[in-house]
Specification:
Layout (H helix, E strand, L loop, with lengths): L4 H9 L4 H11 L22 E2 L6 E2 H11 L6
Antiparallel strand pairs: 1-2
Length: about 80
């Protein structure tokens, strides 16, 4: 079960059953990550990998490349 699948399962099957939904969340919800690739998401697109957190950007490398000039970064090569 991936990070996005558990929310879909909860919404579709357990809407009318709050007690069972609480038990489902207790045992099946993915834990909050403190370290590793799944700890940070891109604020723009939601990707997990290749995360740039310098200067408080919190963007993936693809999004950073698209908006770097607008933010004020220059390419030196």
């Amino acid at each position: 079960m991936t990070a996005s699948d558990w929310k879909k399962t909860l919404n579709n099957q357990l809407k009318a059953k709050p007690a069972i939904a609480q038990r489902f969340l207790k045992y099946n919800k993915p834990k909050e990550r403190k370290i590793g690739i799944a700890a940070k998401k891109c604020e723009r697109c939601g990707r997990f990998g290749a995360h740039i957190k310098s200067y408080g950007l919190n963007l993936c490398r693809q999004c950073f490349r698209q908006i770097a000039v607008e933010i004020g970064f220059k390419k030196y090569s």
